[in-house]
Automatic annotation (TrEMBL):
Lineage: Eukaryota, Metazoa, Ecdysozoa, Arthropoda, Hexapoda
Gene Ontology biological process terms from the UniProt entry: pyridine nucleotide biosynthetic process
Matching SUPFAM superfamilies: EF-hand, Isochorismatase-like hydrolases
Enzyme class: hydrolase
Protein name: nicotinamidase
Pathway where this protein functions: Cofactor biosynthesis; nicotinate biosynthesis; nicotinate from nicotinamide: step 1/1
InterPro entries: EF-hand-dom_pair (IPR011992), EF_Hand_1_Ca_BS (IPR018247), EF_hand_dom (IPR002048), Isochorismatase-like_dom (IPR000868), Isochorismatase-like_sf (IPR036380), Isochorismatase_Nicotinamidase (IPR052347)
Source species of the chain: Odynerus spinipes
Record Gene3D superfamilies: EF-hand, Isochorismatase-like
Length: 356
């Protein structure tokens, strides 16, 4: 695997893999680079990904990487893979989802939210994270998502379910704000026992917490939910500050807030992995759909043992790298010394500043 000495110089890395010395990295030479970068075991059977990555990075479509294109690839693609900034996001491991009003074991999956506590504690303790962030649902009494608050707002004429017929977990359409909303039992009211993180969950001293769902009129499944439409979310600001590149997401519930957080992270240009043995969900069919959706959007499904190897030993995921190439291919193709306006480029610039 490429080590810390190789990634410091674009020119040195280029010379190492320009086997025929023609000043161009062709597809075969790029494959050799990837084999060293990811390891033979990761590459075997995924050659189609390597071909697609090469095509995405070959922005000039001249069947070779060289010059300014190569330097951009080195800066935006290789450096963040070889020296990532790894963040663990622990989603909503709160009393109401474990023992309270929305305890997962009451519902069709029959999964116990408490089962995530021990593996998450191990993960937070054994892996060398650049940052650990815990999210909490933190709702006011009059929150729009509570079934008990249905009488507080008018339904839109197009709502397929009326107030008289509505039951918990139904979806209704409100008039103001005009949104479709799943009705959940009252949960995680700010300042209550139900909103507290589970007592056995170990909170690391240098970690941070994000409270979401404080606006009474906004559902906040994703930890990336914005407080104000034209501003970055608090989580985005935290991640940008440390130059985060790779997000590892776990917690409750797989098919609701974990899914939404993973998909938003992928959309924003981060490499994202969902840690399956550290997640539990509400409904089995929806859990499987959530996994499919995360994979389809470029996310990795993995387990805590592999995550510890990735974070501590520098093991790399070709799936996550493939997503990074897709993001880079959509970013503006401009010189690497300029300031990039895209989200992806901002993340990469922060990464470079943090790791230089």
């Amino acid at each position: 695997m490429i080590d810390g000495g190789d990634w410091k110089s674009a020119d040195e890395l280029f010379k190492k893999f320009d086997v025929n010395g023609d000043g161009v990295l062709d597809q075969e030479e790029f494959f050799l680079l990837c084999e060293e970068q990811f390891g033979e075991e990761e590459v075997k059977g995924n050659e189609w990904r390597l071909r697609d990555i090469f095509e995405k990075l070959d922005v000039n479509q001249d069947r070779g990487l060289k010059g300014a294109v190569w330097k951009r690839i080195f800066t935006e693609y290789i450096k963040p893979i070889v020296k990532p900034v790894n963040v663990l996001i622990v989603v909503d491991v709160q009393n109401d989802f474990i023992e309270g009003t929305l305890a997962l074991r009451k519902y069709t999956s029959n999964q116990d939210g408490a089962d995530v506590v021990e593996p998450i504690n191990r993960l937070s303790k054994e892996a060398r994270w650049d940052k650990v962030i815990y999210s909490l649902d933190w709702h006011p009494e009059n929150h729009i998502s509570f079934y008990e608050n249905l009488s507080l707002r008018e339904l839109h004429p197009t709502s397929k379910i009326t107030k008289e017929n509505a039951k918990p977990f139904d979806s209704v359409t409100f008039l103001q704000p005009h949104v479709e909303q799943t009705l959940w039992p009252r949960h995680c009211v700010m300042g209550t026992w139900g909103a507290e993180l589970h007592k056995d969950l170990q909170i690391l001293p240098e970690s941070e917490q994000v409270h979401k769902g404080q606006d009474p009129d906004i559902e906040a499944c994703s930890v990336f939910t914005k407080d104000k439409p034209k501003e970055s979310s608090r989580l985005e600001k935290m991640l940008r500050k440390i130059g985060a590149t790779d997000l590892y997401v776990c917690g409750l519930a797989t098919d609701v807030c974990v899914k939404a957080t993973c998909l938003d992270g992928l959309k924003l240009g981060y490499k994202v992995a969902m840690i399956e043995d550290c997640c539990r969900g509400v409904d089995n069919d929806n859990i499987e759909e959530a996994k499919r959706s995360i994979v389809e959007h470029g996310g990795l499904l993995t387990n805590s043992d592999r995550v510890i190897c990735m974070v501590n030993e520098g093991r790399r995921s070709l799936i996550m790298a493939h997503h990074a190439a897709n993001i880079i291919s959509k970013a503006p193709s401009i010189p690497v010394d300029d300031k990039y306006p895209s989200t992806c480029a901002c993340l990469l610039q922060n990464h470079i500043e943090q790791r230089s």
